[in-house]
Amino acid sequence: MLKYKRSFFRLSYVTCIFIIMLIGISVYRKNIIYDNLVINYDNKNVKYGNKISASDIVKTSNAPYRIIKDIDTKKLGEQEILVEIVKEDVSKIIPITVLVVDETKPVVKVKSDTVSINVGDNFDIKSNIESVIDDGVNLNYLDKANEDSREYYTINSNFNKDVSGTYEVEVVAVDRANNITNVKYNIVVNDKVVEPTVNSMVVGNNANAPINPSGGDIVSIAYSLIGSPYVSGGNQPGGFDCSGFVQYVYSRVGKSVSRSSYTQAYDGVGVSYSNARPGDILNWGHGGRVTHSALYVGNGMMIHATNPSMGVVLSNVSAWESGSIDKVMGVRRVN
Fold first, then answer.
1. Domain boundaries 107-190, CATH class
2. Helix and strand totals (H; E) in the chain
3. Are 233 and 281 within 8 A, CB to CB?
């Protein structure tokens, strides 16, 4: 009996040793596999808003993997991605640290590099700003900003509408990552000029005035300039104001007219609107003052340099008159 008990205990001992060895071998194998599970990844910075996921960052791996925690490119700063890599019955979670950065500055567009007004004229310095955009989103205006302010634009200027001179306006745009864009434009405040009032000589009704032989050429040149930009004080194809446009077109056919709208109301001879012919100058205004010039091109239409947002356009005379306080005050024929 004692002999059998000793044999049993010997067998049990050997069995336990064998099991422990198997467990040890299994643990060792798993540790080897675990230590050799590797993921290679691109650790470059990720641009804010890019359509990218953790799978795009992982370059290679020596076993199948899945993403447990992905990247959010709409959040700036450091982020941790979690990737689980699996081989046989061994799993390993590998953290990857990425940095989401925004290196793109806001885009500021102004309507005109120079705005011209007269002393005392009301002018909103924000009205010359066409857009302030960052990553496709319009930034809001902030009157007073501090060092912690983000995603806004503000304006710096000592502009004074009541004192003549040239004033610089600086538009400062700041995005969420404190990228800053500075764009400047000028406001020229001119001394007021005493303008002549329209009288019978200006309006005129010379039914016997000969038709301008250059009328057809004037119309053709005017049509070719449709779409040109409006620039205050401009009289070249790079940009026109209303009277500068008329002066330039006439210069192309070898004829000279004066520079301003109110003096163009005295150029040539006056005819009635019912006798207007292609190439004639239309004088616009209200309250006895001429404020705008246009070229009549026939069939109730005119071409003129309007404003910074529209530039040189073709307009229906009647429609333009019905939508404005200005009226046709005179028609001038320059031969």
1. mainly beta
2. 7, 22
3. no
Pair 329, 319: CB distance under 8 Å: no
Helix axes 242-252, 215-224, angle to 10 degrees: 120
- Cα distance between residue 231 and residue 116, in whole Å: 9
How far apart CA 239 and CA 248 sit, in angstroms, is: 11
- Where do the domains of the chain lie? 41-101, 107-190, 200-333
CA geometry: angle 258, 260, 263, nearest 5 deg: 65
Whole-prediction pTM value? 0.46
The phi-psi region of residue 15 (left if phi > 0; otherwise alpha if psi is between -120 and 50; otherwise beta) is alpha
Rounded-to-integer distance, Cα 53 and Cα 185, Å: 42
Helix (H, G, I), strand (E, B) or coil at 249: helix
Taking only the tens of pLDDT, the chain with its 335 residues reads 555 555 655 667 677 887 888 877 777 888 998 999 999 988 778 888 888 888 888 888 999 999 999 999 889 899 999 999 999 889 999 999 999 999 899 999 999 999 988 888 899 999 999 999 998 899 999 998 787 888 999 999 999 999 989 999 999 999 988 999 999 999 999 876 544 344 434 455 666 678 888 999 999 999 999 999 999 999 999 999 999 999 999 999 999 999 999 999 999 999 988 889 999 999 999 888 899 999 999 999 999 999 999 999 999 998 888 888 889 999 999 98
The token duo for 241 is: 């104001």
Question: Could you name the CATH architecture of 200-333?
Answer: Alpha-Beta Complex (3.90)
How far is residue 308's CA from residue 239's CA, in Å, rounded to a whole number? 10
Q: Residues with catalytic annotation?
A: 242, 292, 304
Check residue 126 and report its DSSP letter.
Answer: G
